[in-house]
Design goal:
Elements (H helix, E strand, L loop, with lengths): L1 E8 L11 E3 L17 E8 L2 E4 L4 E3 H18 L1 E5 L6 E6 L4 E6 L2 E6 H22 L4 H19 L1
Antiparallel strand pairs: 1-2, 1-3, 3-4, 3-5, 6-7, 7-8, 8-9
Helix pairs in contact: 1-2, 1-3, 2-3
């Protein structure tokens, strides 16, 4: 089973300290005054059958990461492969078709075989959950995030159609 969780740093002065991360599901605990909605730093935690693929030490701009993953999935569906870099850190992500049911996910030099439909479902679900919870956390910032949420939902429909 693919499990994805989103964490945001609860302070601008985090210096990458994973102890300062808060799960977006617990959005009432996040101090909105400590966030810059244009620069949302945090992590995506990705696990497959208990194996950690991406952990809290690999942080970046989480809203942009979800868009990058979604766009890469669409490219993968068309071309059988996709590649992107994290927005602000030197992390490379590659998707490559192993067979009809599995994708090879490579993050830097580590490689994992995942069921593509389950992985894509988990990415889109976590992205939608992230944007919806952030809108609850900061309803005044609904413009861009509502656009991104709509875009994620459209990409999800395109992927599974």
């Amino acid at each position: 089973m693919v499990k994805i969780e989103t964490f945001l740093f609860n302070t601008k002065k985090h210096k990458g300290n994973p102890d300062l991360l808060v799960n977006i599901k617990e959005y009432p605990l996040i101090d909105i005054t400590q966030l810059d909605p244009d620069y949302l730093e945090g992590t995506l935690s990705i696990e497959y059958n208990g194996q950690v693929i991406l952990d809290k030490t690999c942080w970046d701009l989480v809203d942009q990461l979800y868009i990058y993953f979604a766009e890469a999935l669409l490219h993968y569906k068309k071309e059988g492969e996709a590649e992107f870099f994290f927005p602000d850190t030197p992390v490379t992500v590659k998707l490559q078709k192993k067979n009809k049911a599995y994708v090879s996910l490579q993050i830097n030099e580590k490689q994992y075989a995942l069921p593509i439909d389950e992985f894509a479902s988990a990415i889109f679900y976590a992205a939608i959950e992230f944007f919806q919870n952030f809108l609850k956390l900061n309803p005044r910032y609904n413009g861009n995030f509502e656009i991104e949420l709509k875009r994620i939902k459209e990409m999800e429909q395109a992927f599974f159609s």
